[in-house]
Design a protein that fits this description.
The chain is α/β, with parallel strands linked by helices. It has 2 domains: 310 residues, FAD/NAD(P)-binding domain (3-Layer(bba) Sandwich), CATH 3.50.50.60; 149 residues, no CATH class. Helices cover 33% and strands 20% of the residues. The strands form 6 sheets. Strands 1, 2, 3, 4, 5, 6 and 19 form a 7-stranded mixed β-sheet that branches. The N and C termini lie far apart (57 Å).
């Protein structure tokens, strides 16, 4: 690889704060609110003009604001034991009060585009009320390094390259962008993780909405079931068994499109070392009138790197092309009920469920979650969705202690990582939406305590953080457990 030398120049310091949060997604929003409410001067930096990540501009994707039940034996609908609490509960309450509907039990009023707008509004309002400074439409660049300590961030926006100094930086980028640029050790996804979580390694998707669909006409077409034995035989020959079953009502339409118009069931994207496949896309109904939604995803392969700019560029281009082609050249042309359909919007970013994360002072594993492991630096009890189901099926539901050390990167000071950027294996282990809110609050509180005591995150007295979180409504265990931790 060739290199060029950047000319040295001065970057103006536009902010000098206690805490700088890189990334305005779920974890970053709650980290910034918590840092500010714990007395730290705080700035939140995000590349979009709207905060909330996949619950805001990402349109909530296909999930809900709170996780559903992992197993029929489990009565609760959130995976942070045993109930909602803290800033996350405040957010959910305010979101619901304004009409946000993406909450279990699912109601007929769910309207994800509208719900996402409410979520982004509530998130921004809570940030502003808490005194967080917002620097939106701004990219985080390199960290400002003082030996092995992060002392702030260089940022890029319409004003050019500028500097934000901070006593503590929180990496909430999702792919540990700040930590990677700082030279911290990084964990990358492995193909074997797929057995632990089907969304791993590096599950990705691009969400989109379609309007103007006549779902009554569509449903009548599906109910007629005009698929012949010859169509089924063709499907088994040309498509795999899964696609033949999944697309059964459309087999005559697919056959005509593929034989007469060269329609392809999948595309391939060259990622240098390997190729990722992009399959066919189903458009499903939403609970709001004539709307439909879909999600285009690449295959889950180990060589796909969510932290590689060229990979992301190639995938974004291919997925957007695939969505447009599917919507207009197949669904609109061939599928009854879609004659007057329009592609309304494609999400502004590629949603990622996994990817690179820091190698923390401790790395939480699926085995930890399944066995309900206990840690002295526990911040809250976490029920990873797949682990909860696994334990429920074996007759004893277990939550794991989320240790503070998963947020502290090895070798680098002045930095905390929250959400997916924190240290977990498989790479999708810490992606749960509600848990990201709770971890964000814990990380923000920790950063504020570090700034107040003038210590690095590695030097923080964890008991002071645990006591602060208990005061904020966190659950670290029953009274016996709190005595063990010497917190009462």
């Amino acid at each position: 690889m060739q290199y060029v030398i950047e000319p040295q120049k001065q970057a103006p310091v536009i902010y000098d704060v206690d805490v700088a949060v890189a990334g305005g997604g779920v974890a970053g929003v709650f980290a910034a609110i918590a840092a500010a409410r714990n007395g730290a001067s705080t700035i939140l930096i995000d590349r979009f003009g709207s905060v909330g990540g996949n619950i805001g501009p990402g349109m909530i994707c296909n999930g809900n604001m709170i996780s559903g039940r992992a197993h029929e034996k489990l009565w609760y609908e959130c995976t942070v034991y045993p109930r909602l609490y803290g800033i996350g509960k405040e957010f959910i309450d305010r979101y619901a009060e304004l009409g946000g509907g993406s909450l279990p039990p699912l109601a007929a009023t769910i309207h994800r585009p509208n719900d996402a707008s409410i979520a982004a509004y509530v998130a921004q309002t809570m940030l502003e009320e808490s005194g967080v400074k917002l620097l939106l439409s701004t990219w985080c660049g390199d960290p400002i390094m003082e030996d092995r300590r992060v002392g702030g961030l260089f940022v890029e926006n319409k004003s050019g390259r500028q500097a934000v100094k901070a006593r503590v930086v929180i990496d909430a980028t999702g792919e540990a962008d700040v930590a990677r640029r700082a030279g911290a050790p990084i964990l990358y996804p492995k193909a074997e993780y797929h057995e632990l979580d089907g969304h791993s390694p590096t599950g990705m998707g691009l969400y989109f909405l379609v309007g103007g669909i006549d779902w009554d006409r569509y449903n009548r077409f599906v109910e007629q079931d005009r698929v012949s034995d010859d169509d089924l035989a063709w499907g088994k020959e040309r498509l795999d068994a899964l696609w033949t079953e999944r697309f059964r009502p459309f087999l005559p339409l697919l056959r005509r499109a593929m034989e007469n118009n060269g329609y392809r069931m999948e595309d391939s994207v060259d990622l240098e070392e390997a190729a990722a496949r992009i399959g066919a896309i189903r458009i499903g109904p939403m609970e709001a009138g004539s709307l439909g939604h879909g999600n285009a995803s690449p295959s889950r392969i180990e060589s796909l790197d969510a932290g590689n700019g060229r990979h992301i560029s190639a995938l974004e281009a291919a997925l957007r092309r695939r969505i447009s082609y599917d919507v207009y050249c197949f669904w609109r042309r061939y599928v009854p009920g879609f004659e007057n359909a329009s592609l309304l919007v494609i999400a502004p970013f590629l949603g990622v469920r996994g990817g690179p994360c820091i190698e923390g002072e401790y790395t939480l594993t699926m085995d930890d979650c399944r066995t309900g492991r206990r840690f002295d630096d526990v911040l809250y009890l976490y029920g990873e969705f797949r682990a909860l189901r696994w334990t429920a099926e074996r007759g004893e539901v277990k939550w794991v202690d989320l240790p503070y050390r998963v947020m502290v990167p090895k070798s680098i000071d002045g930095l905390l990582a929250v959400g997916r950027s924190a240290s977990g294996q498989p790479d999708t282990l810490l992606r749960n939406r509600m848990a990201a809110k709770v971890m964000g609050q814990a990380g923000g509180a920790a950063a504020a305590l570090c700034a107040r005591a003038n210590v690095t995150p590695r030097q923080l007295n964890v008991k002071s953080l645990q006591l602060a979180l208990l005061d904020q409504g966190y659950y670290l265990g029953d009274r016996h457990r709190l005595k063990e931790l010497q917190l009462i």
